[in-house]
Structure formats: structure tokens, C-alpha cells
Amino acid sequence: MVDAKIRIRQLSYSYGGAEALREINLDVPANAVTAFFGPSGGGKTTLLRLINRLNDLVEGTRMQGTILLDGENIYAPGVDVPRLRRRVGMVFALPLPLPGTVRENVVCGPRLAGIRDWGRLEEILERSLAQAALWNEVKDRLDDPAVALSGGQQQRLCIARSLALEPEVLLLDEPTSGLDPISTAKVEESLFELKQQYTIVIVPHSVQQAARVADYAAFFLMGDLVEVQEGTRIFTTPQDPRTEDYVTGRFG
Which of 77, 100, 225, 234 is the most buried (most CB within 10 A)? Predict the structure, then answer.
């Protein structure tokens, strides 16, 4: 893989005495969709959270190895963690709109970052909603409560909220797990546009979704990185029999 945005080297992580990840070595290419897939408990979400440093306050954990963002160790002493999280946005499985209107949900981050000009905020609002494939559906409802949107719209609103801060990396943890097929398709379609500007890492809802959206895919099993390949290859000609069993539904 060339032009890696994120490089993970010899990464191991444990909760108490239980290993969640073991000696992970992985490059995440820039401007592509990389899928972490595999059975539950494989370490996919844990790795996602480590890239965003969301596990910092979890007690009883131990990490070894490095995660590099543009060549810089994100766990080095003195790293500005709030700034890192602006560079690396994250969207969770359950839509979590903030109290307030659709407009307020999207512009709250830029306002907290110091942007006060309403013209600039309106530009950010429209751009972010358009990138999340939501603008046409809500442009006449910007002052409605965000909770009045459908579940699929709320999830795309959460994506827009992350995009409003112009992150370099977007982490998506099963973003369509509770959505209907139409909403799922809209989220997936937006990824093809978003990867032109962002590096995207997704924990997909299913193997089928991973196959649809992934430029690159990494198969995790019980804390181990079993295999990583281009998406078009790993789902058709996996090299490891464990990956093949999971992709073909024979996993036991």
C-alpha cells in the first residue's frame, strides 16, 4: 500500500489481563476506504478507538507499539489530543444527534473552534450536509429539531457534524447497523465521494457491506490481523483459509 495516512506498528493492547489486539502491523492508505471486518470480539472497534484515542480514560489497559498519523506518533508525550480528535473524526453505530436544531448540530463544532462569521458557518453547514448526502432532504428543515429526523437522516447528520470540522480521517463504527436498506445505500454512496477528500476507516455491518465499499480490507480474528488485501481481492481470492471461511459463511 502506498501513501499511507496511518501506519500501525507492533501494536498490542489489553484490557486487564485479556489481550484485545496482538502485534498489529497495518498501513491505512490515504484517500481510500479501508474496512476492518471479522467476527465480533476480533478487536476492530478497539483499534478504531485507539486511532482516535478514545480509550485514554479506560482504566486497567496496556498498549505497546505505535500508531503514526502522517509519520507522527499520536501517543507521543505532549500530543494535543483535542486537536488530534479534530483531525480524526469518529461516527458511532447509534446516531447521537445533539439537542437542538439540524443547523446547530452541524455548526456547533466550528463555533467551538472559534468561527463566528455566520456567512462562513452557513457555507460549512451546506458543504457538510451535502458531503453527507443530506442537504437536499433537510435544506428546508434546518431549524427543525435534529431528533425529528429519521434514523438514517440522523446518522448522516452525525457524519455531517464530523465533516464540519474538516477532519483528515473519518472513522465509522458500524454506521449503518440500525438503518433500513435505502438509508444504508445513501451512506454507502456518500463514501465514494468522501474518499476523494478524506481517509476513511469503517467497521462495516456485514461482509457484504465490506465488499461493496472497501478499497482495502483487513480481516481480524480474536485480536489478530489475519489478512489484509485490496478489497476486490480479499473477498474473491482470500489467501488465508480463515478469511475464506468467514467470507463464504463457513466460519465456525
Answer: 234
The DSSP annotation for 8-32 comes to: EEEEEEEETTEEEEEEEEEEEETTS
The residue type found at 38 is G
Distance CA 155, CA 173 (A): 11
Vertex 159: Cα angle to 144 and 191 (nearest 5):
130
The pTM of the full predicted model, rounded to 2 decimals, is 0.92
pLDDT digits (tens, 9 = 90+) for 93-102: 888 899 999 9
Spatial neighbors of 141 by CB under 8 A, at least 6 apart, are: 102, 148, 149
The pLDDT tens digits for 217-247 are 999 999 999 999 999 999 999 999 999 999 9
| CATH T-level topology, domain 4-247 | Rossmann fold (3.40.50)
User: 10 Å Cβ neighbour count for 73?
Assistant: 13
